[in-house]
Specification:
The chain is α+β, with helices and mostly antiparallel strands and 301 residues long. Helices cover 36% and strands 17% of the residues. The longest helix has 21 residues.
Length: 301
């Protein structure tokens, strides 16, 4: 049988010999480019996803499909376990109260000292454990979203549990806990803020687009004393900001239902004065970080 006849027979059987045979795809140049593109994409998406690299050409995995499958399965189970446990960033209460020194809202260098406190003294502990202890305060980076004109996105929260104190509350921020997967260095808080924007509002924002406004901490209250807000601001380049509210976090407007909308600072001031906005962090952010240079303090008394 000739070589061409053998090749024809192999194709008829469903076999296509490619080992040590270069083709339009199976050649080193194309494969190296594919690997380069894959690595570049993985790096770009690392901010949004947990990316792991498994080298199937390594000596311990090469020609061992079962061992490779076990390695991938172990990684997946580890991620599931972490998600179920949800380790969050916190600091000892006494360390944080020393930074605030009796104040409720900090700005400038004093506010950055709060971030430094989490860098120096922070640790990741199981959320269910921390929630039960007064000895720890949890970091919650929150982002105030504004359009080009300076109007602020006002939202009504919809929590999974109606017993949650934030359920149906009007707020002016999107945010949440810093998780262990956000990192263990000084960038963890910032990465958490970016992740929460993506998860809650479907906004993909770069780190350099966020402006740190300050920190808010109420030392009294069952819930507020266990959380500190690290407040960031993001401003859009236009007044036409497309924000897709996640059904997991917020309502869409249907009839008398409630939704998110952009409102002026003066409207927010009115909302706070009339107690329409009575969520503590939102009120403090409006009073101390957004309207303090525009309206006299007596308006809020």
């Amino acid at each position: 049988m000739t070589a061409s006849a053998e090749d024809s027979l192999e194709r008829e059987k469903g076999y296509l010999p490619v080992e040590e045979v270069a083709g339009s795809i199976m050649n080193l140049e194309v494969l190296e480019q594919m690997l380069k593109t894959t690595r570049k994409t993985a790096k770009r998406l690392a901010r949004h996803f947990r990316v792991y690299s498994v080298d199937t050409s390594a000596s311990e995995l090469r020609s061992h499909p079962q061992r490779t499958a076990e390695t991938v399965a172990d990684l997946a189970l580890d991620v599931i376990e972490e998600q179920l446990r949800e380790d969050i960033l916190c600091v000892p209460t006494e360390a944080l109260t020393a930074v605030f020194n009796g104040n409720t809202c900090l700005q400038g260098a004093a506010a950055f000292a709060v971030s430094d406190c989490f860098i120096r003294n922070g640790q990741f502990l199981p959320r269910e454990e921390v929630e039960q202890k007064k000895e720890f305060v949890q970091a919650l980076p929150v982002v105030v979203v504004r359009n080009k004109s300076g109007d602020v996105l006002r939202l009504r929260r919809k929590e999974t549990s109606e017993t949650n104190l934030l359920h149906q509350k009007i707020v002016i921020w999107a945010g949440g806990h810093v998780r262990s997967e956000d990192g263990s260095n000084g960038e963890a808080i910032l990465r958490a803020a970016l992740r929460e924007l993506q998860e809650e509002l479907r906004l993909s924002v770069e780190a350099n687009e966020l402006n740190f406004l300050g920190s808010v901490y109420f030392q009294t209250g069952e819930r507020t004393s266990k959380h500190v807000a690290l407040v960031y601001e993001w401003r859009a380049d236009t007044d036409d900001v497309a924000v897709a509210l996640s059904s997991a976090e917020f309502f869409e407007r249907r009839g008398t239902s409630l939704s998110g909308s952009f409102v002026t600072i003066s409207e927010l001031v009115s909302d706070v004065v009339k107690a329409k906005v009575d969520e503590p962090w939102s009120g403090e952010i409006v009073r101390e970080l957004l309207a303090a240079t525009i309206y006299p303090p007596r308006l809020f008394e």
